[in-house]
Amino acid sequence: MDLTYAVRSLLKNPGFTLLAILVMALGIGANTAVFSVVNTVVLKPLAYRDPDRIVTIRNFWKKTGAASNNVSGPDFRDWHDQSASFEAMAYYTYGTSGPAPVIVDGASEYADLTLVSPEFFRIFEVQPLAGRFFNAEEQKPSSSGAALISAGFWQRRFGGKTDAIGKNLRSFDKTLTIVGVLPEGFQFPEKTEIWVPSNAIYPENTHRSAHNYRAIGRLKPGVSVAQAQAEMSAIASRLEQQYPPSNTSKGIVIERMSDTLVSNVRLTLYLLLGAVGMVLLIACANVANLLLAKSTARVREIAIRAAVGASRARIVRQLIVESVVLALVAGAAGLVLAIWGADALVALAPANVPRLAETRTDGWVLAFTFGAALISSLLFGLAPALQLSKVDLNDALKQGGTRGSTGGAAGRIRSALVIAEIALSVVLLAGAGLLIRSFEALLDVDNGFHPERVLIARTSFPASSDEKSRARAVRFFDDLIADVRTLPGVSAAASTEGPPGTSMHDGGYWIDRLPPLEELSVTAPQAVFVVGAPGMFETLQVPVKMGRDLSTADTAETPFVAVINEALAKRAFPGANPMGHVIFCGLDSFTGMRIVGVVGDVRQLGPSRPPPPVLYMPYAQHPMLAPMQQLVVRTTAEPLALSETLRRKIREHSPEVPVTFTTLETAVSENVAAPRFRTLLLGIFAALAVSLAMAGVYGVMAYVVSQRTNEIGLRMALGASTGDVLSLVLRQAMALAGIGLVLGLAGAAAASRLLTSMLFEVKPGDPATYATVVVLIGAIALAASYIPARRAARVDPLLALRQE
């Protein structure tokens, strides 16, 4: 009976019902959309057997307190041989330097390729969908080469046919025989499509100070993460004593892989979930105000129910049932909005969010929506129900008793709800304002180069580790760059392995003297290593501050040279001239390089990071990095318009070289994808919250005016002017806004500390942001209350008094 009456009551008031459903659907839908992403990325277990036993093994630098994903080969061997906590332990090298060039049936393309050590697949306990795993011979350095492919790559390149097993593919000038297909959905790490034995393409690096690999393991049954951590810490201490130059201050940290994968995005997702939670609370307060307004028309109905014997609990139950029905309908509508919203979140999110593409509306998401709807019904329905159930029978049954529940406590509740709405919207608006100012600062930062009209062509020459193969790669890029420079519309061209915003290699450097190899220490000063072609600085418009650029005369047969940036010059040669000094690094050899130039600083690690020390080297003298060069071409017109011409030119020089295009401006934009994502979403949620809060201010003031019509008429009859009436109403509205502002600013000051790690050149207590919030909320509150105030000022005293 309660349900039937609730449905009939809501249908009798379609305007109220639709408005309440819309407001609640927005709040529930936004929460469900964000929760579906959080559930997939953070909460849902990894799709492996006993995923809690799979851990990452990383270096921990005791002096800085920072963990590093990359580990050294010799360290890994000692960890593997000396530990007893692991069922399996492996290392992998993802992508070698990004997506790898792959040639299948004469067609070249890019594919994500990962080099893996022998126990890699034991960690995940997967079985091939077709074929087999690598055998012992195929995992030796001298093997002919083998590969496992993903189910997606199998379908895309071989149509899912079983004869794919035994076919060959080529990568980095190495022929690899396909021996198996891994099951659907397995693509670790990232989006790997091809897995190759670790020594098949490049031999394992034996320098303990070179950190080239990532390590993972599967714990034995019954072994906890804490137990494994204790054992590995003891091993790290022994290695620290045994190899002090390379392992001083180097510890080990063990963490569940599920936690490591989401460490960079967890805070952002929880921030968004908290933001939409505030939006839902504001929506609940808005609907509660609507219900309180509606209660005016139901005073006599409730009084009659009480007069014929209905208890207060029975009346509250009826009203709560109506709220539940309203919330469930809103929840269903919100679920539809959530599906669209989740798709929008996936489209807007940065590409590096793990498992984001797996976002689905599953049972947990449905349960969350149902729970949000039920909790919301209590939040917005309980206060009006309790207030309405306290009706005074004598007053309510009188002719004018429809106003019996509108004053006193009901008015205070409505005011409190509006204050809460304003306070919550201030918190969200302040957070969004801080992120917006931070993002603006990020966009305005001087990157040290000019990205406009620069085309990036990602190319990889199919070369292996032998010298002849690498020499062919050098000749290919020499000829290609010279040819590209003659194309119409090209003002400059070069190549680099690491365009600004990326860091392929880094490590220690030494000035004028190289210590004995056994004494090389990880405590040496660090720099980013960039290998490129002559003309790189001209193309990127990086100024040469001293000396010269790299030159075509810098070949493998001439003395090795290098160019450094100002940051490295200031650190290594404070107050001195760096020209002519010799610098050593362990990128591919320890040959000394004479410093021949100093260039301006470039934010090589992205706009949010200060320019690091950078060491630039010519690829002709470092041919190991020559095959992975990316062309950078400065054009006189729209860069992408040159892409097809450049593609044909590359194919003329080598049909085996795959190529993809982007612009440097796009690459720079991708470096700020994460801050742009959270700034955009928090800004949207803040705007929605402010809109709902101001709708609440308007509703309360309109209701107050309607209830005080007679009083206002009397005031005007006694001589009050239009300005007096406007001032009366606006003062009340601004008093509510002022209290909400004070409470909201206090909450924002506390909550904004959570944003500290996300802000760039902006402090959590930024006064300009808070001043803007105060002005904005004040102006919107004033605008929202002006229309009811204007209506009050137009009251006809005679009509108002005649009604009384």
Structure explained in plain terms:
The protein is an alpha+beta fold and 804 residues long. The chain folds into four domains: 1-49 and 259-396, no CATH class; 64-248, no CATH class; 407-443 and 671-804, no CATH class; 461-657, no CATH class. Helices cover 49% and strands 17% of the residues. The chain has 24 helices and 25 strands. Strands 1, 2, 3, 4, 7, 8, 9, 10, 11, 12, 13 and 14 form a twelve-stranded mixed beta sheet that branches. A six-stranded mixed β-barrel has the order 17-18-23-20-22-21. A four-stranded antiparallel beta sheet has the order 16-24-15-25. Strand 10 and strand 11 (174-181) form a beta hairpin. Helix 2 (14-43) packs antiparallel against helix 9. The chain is elongated and about 105 Å long.
* Main sheet makeup: 12 strands, mixed
Beta strand count = 25
Which percent bin holds the helix content?
40-55%
SSE-based structural type: alpha+beta
In DSSP terms (H or I, runs of 4 or more residues), the helix count works out at 24
Q: How many structural domains does the protein architecture include?
A: 4
Low-confidence stretches: 399-406
What is the residue-averaged pLDDT? 87
Please report which band the strand proportion falls in: under 5%, 5-15%, 15-25%, 25-35%, 35-45% or over 45%: 15-25%
Distance between the termini: 39 Å
- Over the alpha carbons, how many angstroms does the gyration radius reach? 34 Å
Global morphology: elongated
